[in-house]
Write a structure and sequence with these properties.
It is found in: Mitochondrion inner membrane. Helix 1 crosses helix 2 and helix 3 packs parallel to helix 7. The protein has 363 residues and is of the alpha+beta class. Helix content is 34%, strand content 16%. It has two domains: 232 residues, no CATH class; 33 residues. It has eight helices and ten strands. It has a four-stranded antiparallel beta sheet with strand order 5-6-7-8. It has a two-stranded antiparallel sheet with strand order 1-2.
């Protein structure tokens, strides 16, 4: 998908309309006297001004620049326009518009060409985004200069790539379902802490009470692996000052996702910043990744949303809500035991039925 360019068609110059009875100024080059032959203009300065009401004036819409070259003089051919690198990029993902599915030179491993459909809805059309095939991923990495990519690991790389994108979108959907209907409703959900917020979102998902018409859509995205976000820069500075508490490796990748939010007043574009961190591997050798996802500080509303998510959890813990919930959970097994004991004590009485009518206990 590139930019289309076209030459502007040349429109023939229309004759100058004159008002009947209107006097033509004597300085106009189109002024001719039917009784006298036109006089040869005397040599004068080149910047002689022409009256503004003359069709040959530069202020007139019918003005056309004079041509000093002879009609028979061949004009030099226009140099062919070279397409820039930006014109070859897809504006939706800032990648090359077309990535080949053909086998690369010197490729020794057969890679699948099937593309997996994601769960992320597109913002420019109906349907969902498609992930690249392993063959496309390998060709794209070669195009970027990563010639040392092991061919037998490309399929695993695609699987991890798709898994991380699905997790990132799930987190973004949680943000959108919390704040799409306004800050007031968002605070009602955030003030009970992150744990209860996650529970409410999962409950709405399981019960099918999510409004499908208000679900977000991904408009476009951009990879910026060489640019640290402001938050990542702050963490790196804290790690340098306090290595025992904040020391961490910089994120290995960064994405900016532009999401279409369905608000009560209409669609709105919201930019999300995603920092990808790698953690220590599992004992089984599986890699571990951490994703830091939040709305970009492009507006005061985004700043308030981030403050609500953080401040709501702090408020819930400081007000004792977290402790009260933990206490109720610790009391739950004892209450359950009491209920079981009561049922066991009443079971002989409930199960002893009168011969004259079922369901009536006999005393």
């Amino acid at each position: 998908m590139g930019w289309f360019w076209a030459d502007t068609p040349k429109v023939p110059v229309a004759p100058h309309p004159t008002t009947p009875g209107a006097a033509i100024p004597p300085g106009c080059p189109m002024h001719e006297s039917s009784q006298a032959s036109p006089a040869v203009p005397a040599a004068g300065p080149a910047n002689t001004e022409i009256p503004s009401n003359c069709p040959m004036s530069k202020d007139s819409p019918f003005y056309s620049a004079p041509k000093f070259a002879n009609a028979g003089t061949p004009q030099p051919a226009a140099a062919p326009q070279k397409s820039s690198t930006l014109s070859k990029l897809n504006p939706l993902n800032y990648m090359f518009a077309s990535i080949s599915q053909e086998r690369a030179p010197n490729q020794t491993v057969d890679l699948p060409v099937d593309r997996e459909l994601s769960s992320i809805p597109r913002g420019d059309s109906e349907g969902n985004w498609e992930y690249p095939s392993p063959q496309q991923m390998y060709n794209a990495m070669l195009r970027k200069g990563h010639t040392d990519t092991p061919q037998d690991a490309v399929e695993s790389m695609v699987a991890v790539h798709n898994f991380l994108n699905e997790g990132a979108w799930t987190e973004i959907v949680g943000w959108e379902r919390t704040f799409a209907k306004g800050l007031s409703e968002g605070w009602d959900k955030c003030r009970r802490g992150e744990e209860n917020l996650a529970f409410e979102l999962a409950k709405a998902e399981m019960m099918g009470t999510v409004d499908e018409a208000s679900e977000p859509r991904l408009i476009r995205f951009q990879g910026r692996p060489k640019e640290l976000s402001p938050k990542a820069q702050i963490f790196q500075a804290l790690g340098w000052a306090y290595p025992s508490k904040f020391e961490t490796n910089p994120p290995f990748d960064r994405h900016d996702w532009f999401v279409q939010r369905q608000t009560p007043s209409g669609p709105k574009e919201v930019r999300y910043v995603i920092d990808y961190y790698s953690g220590p591997p599992e004992p089984t050798g599986e890699p571990v990744f951490y994703l830091d996802i939040r709305p970009a500080l492009d507006s005061p509303t985004a700043a308030v949303e981030r403050m609500m998510r953080w401040g709501g959890d702090v408020w819930w813990r400081a007000s004792g809500g977290c402790s009260a919930r933990a206490w109720s959970r610790s009391r739950l097994p004892l209450n359950l035991v009491k209920a079981i004991l009561v049922i066991q004590c009443l079971s002989p009485l409930l199960c002893t039925l009168d011969r004259h009518g079922p369901g009536v206990p006999r005393f």
